[in-house]
Amino acid sequence: MANGTMRYWAAAKAAAGTHEEPYAAGTLAEALTAALAGRGEEFARVVRRSSFLVDGDPVGTRPHESVALPEGGVVEVLPPFAGG
């Protein structure tokens, strides 16, 4: 289990109601499950469409269960952005 920070951008920030929050999780999947708890469908919809960075490295198409989170790490939740 690692402790770190999850940061939300654009629509993810609006749907979460916060810019960032702490996580305590071993994997990205665990952190996202905790973040989704108690939040509405709009937040879940945004997260499903988002891409993720862990300490600046793109997660890409890797299964979220396989992405280990580092102690003190930062997870960036990036929804699709409009424009060019």
Automatic annotation (TrEMBL):
This is MoaD/ThiS family protein. It comes from the Bacteria. It comes from Actinomadura chokoriensis. InterPro entries: Beta-grasp_dom_sf, Mopterin_synth/thiamin_S_b, ThiS/MoaD-like.
